[in-house]
Amino acid sequence: MVGSEMDVLIDVDAxxxxxxISNETGGLVALEDATLHVTRGSIVAILGASGCGKSTLLNIxxxxxxxxxxxxxxxxxxxxxxxxVGLMFQKPLLFDWRNVLQNVxxxxxxxKLPKEEAILRARELLDLVGLTxxxxxxxxxxxxxxxxxxxxxxxxxxxxELLLLDEPFGALDERTREALDVELQEIVQxxxxxxxxxxxxxxxxxxVADKVYxxxxxxxxxxxxxxxxxxxxxxxxxxxxxxxxxxxxECRELLRADEEVSVV
Amino acid sequence: xxxxxDSDLETLAEERQPVTEGGxxxxxxxxxxxxxxxxxxxxxLAALGGVAILTLWQILVSVGFMPRILLPPPSSxxxxxxxxxxxxxxxxxxxxxxxEVITGYAIGASVGFVLGIFLGIxxxxxxxxxxxxxxxxxxxxxxxxxxxVTLFGFGLLPKTLMAAAISxxxxxINTEAGMTSVDPEARRLMGSMNASKKDTFxxxxxxxxxxxxxxxxxxxxxxxxxxxxxxxxxxxSIGLGYLLQLYTYQLQVxxxxxxxxxxxxxxxxxxxxxxxxxxKVVFWEFQRT
Lengths: 264, 289
Hints:
By secondary structure, chain A is an alpha/beta fold. Chain A is about 35% helix and about 25% strand. The longest helix of chain B has about 35 residues, at about 195-235.
């Protein structure tokens, strides 16, 4: 284990998830023998093709799904929905009947935080994600990238220690995605968050993460780990370097290893 | 604005354009070159069409294509209309029907809305109610009219209940559909915040369902009018439905058409009223493209 016990925010040990399908013995193994650690202040990516169990893993971390084998602790406790853990999705999931500011305030209302403070904090976060001028706008007036910025501000509102991001920019075009990836890791660094990023983009992974767990499907398992030692803050320039290409290659190799095995 | 240099501003400018990928909005479609007729305002085009039909009707009746007693010309319907609305007894009938429609609609809408919520949020309620809902759906609701007369007599009650019974069903179905059509991901979002059932209902389910609720309310409104009039056909001594029957028996066909016009106006006015509230309450439905 890396670091002291205190610094491991998520400890996943031989975790497995089998979906029981009716009238069938055995069931569908979505996740098998996954072991990983997420240390404080790091950005850990879980990379894999669809069906590799990466979203299942994230759902278990978020406390929205029960595991069937192994063990997991999140912030020293069994996983459960809590203010210290924020979950962000591929879709922005903004409510059309609320303007930008009101959307960001949803967690505050749910958690019954004092209103005045929450509004101040929401405005700060909207500044942080570059939407100062858009607080009164409605979701349908924003582009996809801006909508995801609102979602990012919303997930940051309760000041969670840990961010679980489920392909947050997966629905955006390449350029917007890269801009948001760069911004994300700056924001994360500035606000000292710990992040688990689930994605199928090798490029995004190497640009953003400190450590990549590469997963392969059927059954979903961890194929290998790649450390990305680039200094922060990273900009899109880093993607032009030879080191970047090499790390991309390493990840691709691990993803491909599975393909060759599964073909045989 | 943070973390931006000039090239990022370019990105932002690009972001402001509607995005086509990933289910975001499409760029607005350019209008095709217009055809000649559509140079005119659609409203005036509609008015022109109406005038053309009425003129044709007037001519056909004048040349004796149909006997005036069976199909009166628009001119005599118009004079019957103005004669009717200047008679004071007419307003007793108008008010009665209006009262039945509004009261019945209010009852039907409330019951439909509340039941729809229950069916939408409780799987148990849905399973229990399912066979009844299906049976009721297949039933032509006008069959209640004679039954309500035998049960509740000849007063306003059976007509009001008819209006309620017919109008409540689409509101029930739409409210239920509105509750169950919420994006499961949005529920997951509320779950990840550990939101209470109450918060999930008031902040997500209810506002989300409003769009469909109003669609049901509009369908229900038209049906409330049907219910009240059909109710009046079965044993009434007051109301526009009663007047319709009376004038038919007296072969005052122009008056029958005049009352029909009154009912059409009532329907349109009430519909516009609900439409106005719809636009006010579910504003996001009309503003997103």
